[in-house]
Amino acid sequence: MKFAYYPGCSLDSSAREFDLSTRAVSRHLGIEYVEVPDWSCCGASPGHSTSQLLALSLAARNLALAESTGLNVTAPCAACYHRLALACHELTGNQELREEVNQITGRPFNATIKVRSILEVITSVGLEQIATRVVRPLTELKIAAYYGCLLVRPRSVQVDDPENPQIIEKIMAAIGAQTVHWSHKTECCGASLAVSNEEVAIPMVFRILKAASLAGANCLVCACPLCHFNLDMRQGKVNQTLGTDFHLPVFYFTQLLGVAMGLDSRDLSLNTHFMDTAQVLKLVG
């Protein structure tokens, strides 16, 4: 199984844990990646909030580069997936618009490829196949699976059901973990407001952490760098500002897959989080 791989800005910098663990787990499952040559920013979030044409052009350039590999493309970052998948959907269905955008980018996109989220790519191996690779079942973990806004909206590119997605829960079940039923799995974490308007974002993060804690979770798992950043890094600020005492590690789903498969912890970057992961990981040895 082979895909073009678009890391995007986050996985190349602040979300290195996601990139490293995704590559390590994929190698272990027999998934091969060809990194998109000369990739550039997908435009999230400023691009699409400024101009639809700009957003389409930024994404289309990367789609054209991915298309040159002859492979369907995957983008682990939820925002990157969202921008590339939406642009692919719009440009595939509108030849006139595609020609206009191709004129802007100077790199013709012919709409011959599909964009897949990393959740879809990993599960395409088969949950049963994933289960056979488990050497350390995560039976002591009680996980709140957090999807955020972008993976399940809008309908044209959603990865799973927008109200009650289950794809992460199914992956976690395959590696022996328990997942909790909770109310905030698709609520917004505040996204980039955590940078521009922290007073709005902090209560949003608080409500998610509170819901996960009340549901009995001892950690959260996500598939979005910005969600991870807000829930992990801002957790200390939530405690400081609101007088709470949350200590909920936030993992990328690929990190927990790697733990269950017995991969080297250095390849999963488990020690670079803001919230300490060691105590929870002791539960699984």
From TrEMBL:
GO molecular function: oxidoreductase activity
Keyword Aminoacyl-tRNA synthetase carried by entry: no
Pfam families: CCG
Alphabetized InterPro entries for the sequence: Cys_rich_dom, HdrB/HdrD_reductase
Gene3D superfamilies: 1.20.1050.140, 3.40.50.11810
Ranges of residues in domain Cysteine-rich: 4-84, 144-232
Keywords assigned by UniProt, alphabetized: Oxidoreductase
Stated name of the protein: Heterodisulfide reductase subunit B
Organism of this sequence: Desulfofundulus thermobenzoicus
Taxonomy of the source species: Bacteria, Bacillati, Bacillota, Clostridia, Eubacteriales
